[in-house]
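Deadline looming. Please check this record:
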Amino acid sequence: MPVSPLQTQNRLHTAGLIVINDNKLLLAFSNNKRAWYLPGGKIDPGESAIQSLIREIEEELQVELSETDLKPYYHISAPAFGEENNLIMEQDCFIGSPNDAYKASGEIGGIKYFSYESYKAQEPLVPGVITAFEKLIADGILST
């Protein structure tokens, strides 16, 4: 059986949704990892990052997005929270609009908007989420 590129490169390829409302970032609570993350998830073989994100948002937040709803923003490389073997998360992030229709489903225990300060006050802290907040603040999209 061939070794997958993820095993060889020690990388986990994902896509994440950035939604800002009232100077706060939307996060989803993963029941599996017991932590707050950017909505989104792993990119399946044959999928592009945006296709993966559209699929994941429909599964996690019960909203069907289209490519025109999403704007490419940036790429995060960070330690993959809760994973073994020094796995690095490689996440393509896209900006989407706030949507009152977002509702947690499946493995998602809830959704909530966090300021940077309110996120840092809870545990556990996910390295990729910290990186997202820092990039959004550096780019002037969020303020502290």
In short: The chain has a mean pLDDT of 91. The CA atoms of residues 68 and 96 lie 9 Å apart. The helical segments are 5-9, 49-61, 116-120, 127-138. The longest strand covers residues 11-21.
